[in-house]
Write a structure and sequence with these properties.
The complex is a heterodimer of chains A (138) and B (139). Chain A is an alpha+beta fold. Chain A has a single domain, classed as Hotdog Thioesterase (Thiol Ester Dehydrase, Chain A, Roll). Chain A is 19% helix and 40% strand. A 5-stranded antiparallel β-sheet of chain A has the order 1-3-4-5-2. In chain A, a hairpin with a 4-residue loop joins strand 4 and strand 5. Chain A is globular and about 45 Å long. With 139 residues, chain B is of the alpha+beta class. Chain B has a domain of 85 residues: Thiol Ester Dehydrase, Chain A. Chain B has a 5-stranded antiparallel β-sheet with strand order 1-3-4-5-2, covered by helices on one side. The longest helix of chain B is centred in the middle third of the chain and has 16 residues. Chain B starts with 17 loop residues before the first strand and ends with a strand. The chains are: A alpha+beta (138), B alpha+beta (139). Chains A and B meet through helix 1, helix 2 and strand 2 of A and helix 1, helix 4 and strand 2 of B. Strand 2 of chain A pairs antiparallel with strand 2 of chain B, so a sheet runs across the interface.
Chain lengths: 138, 139
């Protein structure tokens, strides 16, 4: 189970390519039955793919932290987009565990995430993800 | 249309509410696009086995719809500088989500509006709470 001793652990996922086709697929998925608002743009929350997913994949396989995926809930999410990512961009994603707290029999793990476009050094996404791990002490 | 583009934005201005029925097909499409195939979103039996009433939408799909509501008001998603929320209640497959928001502050010097935003389901549950967006205003 995650504990306060894991604060400061960092995960790096360089070389994430913003695939235009997949970004369009997400725009359609967000629109559902409606027409996509901006079918050719990268939806802001596509950061889930180029920033959160690659960093989280490393966290979830970090055996020392040992997160139980079956009990995992996304509790809160904050995003900032200081610069806008474009289709075809390559970005370097990273994450750091910034807090682990036990409350009401659950464990709250908060990560700071970031994605930087090395071509110009622009930060295209900064964020904070709070994950709730249920069923501690298995 | 109440868009931020080219008009004087003031505290109290409201977003055009955006309502969308989120079907299982839409959740599946989002799983495909995002790569998040957690079975609580796509496997009815599994979802029930962990105490959920059925499959639920990805929180980030709901946040994507909320982002769209803000972007429509702003005129473009390029104007969306920041967005955050708490995933307070799950949104069940087949339920409608309605995203709303209201301008809480305008910084004329920076050209940025801050909005309080949230989303409710057609069950009357507040699914996204503590929401806040920052939008660059066109001038």
């Amino acid at each position: 189970m995650p504990n306060a001793g894991h604060v400061g652990r960092r995960y790096a996922a360089p070389g994430q390519v913003v695939d235009p086709e997949r970004a369009r697929a997400m725009a359609r998925a967000i629109a559902g039955p409606d027409a996509p608002f901006e079918p050719e743009a990268v939806p802001p929350t596509y950061a889930a793919v180029y920033c959160l997913a690659p960093a989280f994949a490393q966290l979830f396989t970090d055996e020392e932290v040992g997160i139980n995926l079956a009990g995992l809930i996304h509790g809160e999410q904050a995003f900032e987009w200081p610069a806008r990512v474009r289709p075809g961009d390559t970005v370097d994603a990273s994450a750091e565990i910034i807090s682990v707290e036990d409350k009401r029999g659950m464990t709250f793990v908060t990560l700071a995430v970031e994605a930087v476009r090395p071509a110009d050094g622009a930060v295209v996404c900064k964020g904070r993800s709070m994950m709730i791990v249920r069923g501690g002490g298995a | 249309m109440s868009t931020a583009a080219g008009s004087a934005v003031k505290v109290g201005d409201e977003l055009e509410p955006l309502t969308r029925v989120v079907s299982q097909e839409q959740i599946n499409a989002y799983a495909e696009a995002s790569g998040d195939f957690n079975p609580i979103h796509v496997d009815e039996e599994f979802a029930r086995s962990v105490g959920l009433p059925g499959t639920i939408a990805h929180g980030l799909l709901e946040l994507g719809i909320l982002a769209e509501a803000v972007a429509r008001w702003a005129g473009t998603s390029d104007a969306l500088l920041a967005l955050e929320c708490r995933f307070s209640k799950p949104l069940r497959a087949g339920d409608a989500i309605t995203c709303t928001g209201r301008v809480a502050a305008v910084d004329d010097a920076e050209g940025v509006a801050t909005l309080d935003v949230e989303a409710t389901s057609d069950r009357g549950e507040r699914v996204l709470t503590n929401g806040r967006a920052r939008v660059r205003l066109s001038r």
